[in-house]
Amino acid sequence: MKEKVRSYKSYILGGIFSVALLLFIQAKPVDSYFEISKNLEIFVNIFKELDGFYVDKIEPGKLVKTGIDAMLNELDPYTNYITESDIEDYEFSTTGKYGGIGAMMRKKGEHVYIGDIYENSPSQKAGLHTGDQILSVDNKSVSGKSIDDISVLLKGAPGTSLSIKVKDAFSGEEITKVLTRGEIEVSSVPYAALIGKEKNIAYAKLTQFTMGCSKQLKFNLDSLKKVNPQLKGVILDLRSNPGGLLEEAVSICNLFVDKGQLVVVTRGKIKEMVKEYKTTSSAWDTKIPLTVLVNGYSASASEIVAGTMQDLDRGVIIGSQSFGKGLVQVTKDLGYNARLKLTVAKYYTPSGRCIQAIDYSHRNLDGNANKLPDSLKKAYVTKSGRKVLSGGGIAPDIAIEDAPSSKLAAVLYNKHYIFDYATLYAKSHRTIASSANFQLSEAEFSDFTRYLQDKDYSYKTATEVALDSLKQLAIKENYYDAIKGEYAALEGKLSHDKQKDLLKNKSEIKQMLENEIVSRYYFLRGRIAQGLQYDNEVIKANAILEDKTSYAGLLQAKK
């Protein structure tokens, strides 16, 4: 009887695959039929044998997903299988909305804590604090669970309730709170303000290209222009913006260039994927000087906006080389609330260049894809005749590389000492100065150094790591006894005083502390506002917009 049940299950599975196969191959050329049908039949047969004879019980959904993921990994990182359980995260990436409590999680060792809290979210309204330790959700202990596991418990349909037990960061008491989940909408424009000495430069941070973000940006620019009608320029900050909806990128370009302007062309192997995207409305302002900030994490739609502004000589690009993602994805419904996000085309900016940096269609023997070599990058020209290159992201007109973080700063962040001290600070300070003006006093920074006195924040420099390797090699080759004295002397000279390191890196660590503290009072918008006072790219963009001659010169071809 068991064998009959097994066979029934297997042949039902085989039938499903056969129907899928028939539907699929109907759309393929005749010479593809055999290869497709042969390999799909092999796949079905393997699955039937596993279902019938594998020593342990298999999980069909998990096994198929593993196979699909492995298949898609042969293509590019952006062609993905989205299961029903992943659909909410995918929709959040395109809409900026999800059902939940509006708080990020942070893991320290085996414990999970409340991280950043969204403004006006259920978490804020319920009185949760950044730094609260999560003990249970709906009476289910979170001990040993990952952040992803806990996120699943916290998310849900707006209007539904949950109980969450926390150890309060301020009082130390264990408290149970009942929250009603809400529709959490994370704004794509978390901060916009007038900056500069005369408050005549409009700054706007765009974090992702979600549905309606162009309208959000226009609303913020309109509001700033209403406060100061004599704006001298706009800084559009696209740093670390991973992209999103192509149509929104076109609409944002439309804020700065007029109706009928070509923004991007997509080209794929089928005719339907060859499309031109042009602006369709009157611009917000076609003359106001514009700077666009990018970095190595600005990708996709961010690069469409930056590349179009550069190709049309409409704005000055400032920062570091962008990521180089020139691929377009669409989603296909697979049934059962599952989807396939599929790369269908490459996009090309108005000058004709594709900024895709990595060639996924040709891989090394080890299976890795390579960046496009300089020899294959083609030169194109902007509207004024400036030279731009394809195949490597967007090269800024003014290059500013971020200074690397010190090892000490990284250790203090990764060991949560910055986070924990900010919690202590918030516990003893009911209010602070505005986010744009807040600074730690010398006495407060000294208090932080005292806080660290009994903490382990030791680290090894690259030289010390190399010296350790030398010691291991010397021991292995029996040379260590002969050089032991010299090694100890060298080790002593290289050892660093932790207190001196704190003073040496004081400026960087102080900025990190201030930024973390500000977030406890003013949320994400506070983080951004506070960081602008030390932001080299913003400072440079502001200077360029104040200098009309320099700005105009950057947009002209060199003779």
Task: Please tell me about this protein's structure.
- The protein has 559 residues and is an alpha+beta fold.
- The protein folds into five domains: 57 residues, no CATH class; 89 residues, PDZ domain (Pdz3 Domain, Roll); 212 residues, 2-enoyl-CoA Hydratase, Chain A, domain 1, CATH 3.90.226.10; 97 residues, no CATH class; 33 residues, no CATH class.
- Helices cover 40% and strands 21% of the residues.
- The protein contains 18 helices and 23 strands.
- A hairpin with a 5-residue loop joins strand 10 and strand 11.
- Helix 7 packs parallel to helix 8 and helix 8 runs parallel beside helix 9.
- The longest helix is centred in the last third of the chain and has 26 residues.
- The radius of gyration is 28 Å and the shape is globular.
- The N terminus is likely disordered.
Search tags:
single chain; alpha+beta; Pdz3 Domain; 5 domains; six-stranded mixed β-sheet; five-stranded antiparallel β-sheet; 23 strands; 21% strand; disordered N terminus
| CATH third-tier fold name of the largest domain | 2-enoyl-CoA Hydratase, Chain A, domain 1
Beta-strand percentage range: 15-25%
Architecture of the largest domain, CATH level 2?
A: Alpha-Beta Complex
Overall pLDDT level: 90
Q: How many separate structural domains? A: 5
- N-C termini distance: 86 Å
* CATH homologous superfamily heading of the largest domain: 2-enoyl-CoA Hydratase, Chain A, domain 1
Kindly state the number of beta strands: 23
Helix content: 40-55%
* Strand order across the largest sheet: 10-11-12-15-16-23
Name of the CATH class of the largest domain: Alpha Beta
Number of helices: 18
The low-pLDDT segments are 1-23
- Whole-angstrom Rg: 28 Å
Shape: globular
Largest sheet: 6 strands, mixed
